Amino acid sequence: MAVDIKNLNHNQLNDLISKAQLRQDELRKEKVVKLREKIHALIKAEGYSFEDIFGGARKSKRAGAKVAPKYRNPANPAQTWSGRGKRPHWFNDALKAGKKEKDLVI
Questions:
Q1: Where are the alpha helices (DSSP H) in 1-106?
Q2: Domain named DNA-binding protein H-NS-like C-terminal: which ranges (predicted)?
Q3: Fewer CB atoms inside 10 Å of the end CB: C or N, the chain?
Q4: What is the reported pLDDT for 34?
Q5: pTM value?
Q6: Quick check: is 64 in a domain?
Q7: CA neighbor of 104 nearest in space, from 71, 78, 82
Q8: Given its phi and psi angles, is residue 85 left (phi above 0), alpha (psi -120 to 50 degrees) or beta?
Q9: Structural domain span for residue 100
Q10: What is the pLDDT of residues 43-96, one digit of tens each?
Q11: Does 59 map to a domain?
């Protein structure tokens, strides 16, 4: 199927590009599924399980568990931070104002 793109206007070209990208994604996903099936078949033919080869899904027992706050905003005690992840603005502002991390520890 040949498409004569010279006769398409701007909107038609954009529509064609969108449809082509969607189709490309579909083909990629189909290829991944087929490859996954081949890998599972090969592993099974050798007498192993997927977990034997790649290990089981290891989830942390603490996944999703809340971490106790480690720092508190002296200006607003309702604001706390566990010390993990990106520093909150109030923490950075306190450091700029001359406070030390140990001053903000709960």
A1: 10-45, 50-54, 89-96, 101-104
A2: 59-106
A3: N
A4: 97
A5: 0.45
A6: no
A7: 71
A8: left
A9: 71-104
A10: 999 999 988 888 876 666 666 678 899 999 888 889 999 999 899 999 999 999
A11: no
The label of the residue with tokens 């001053």 reads 103
For position 89, what pLDDT does the model report?
Answer: 93
Residue 80: its H or E element: strand 80-81
Number of domain units in the chain: 2
Distance CA 67, CA 51 (A): 31
- Reference 90, options 22, 31, 103, 32; nearest CA is 103
Task: Among 30-34, 35-39, 58-62, 96-100, name the one with the lowest average pLDDT.
Answer: 58-62
What single letter denotes the amino acid at residue 20? A
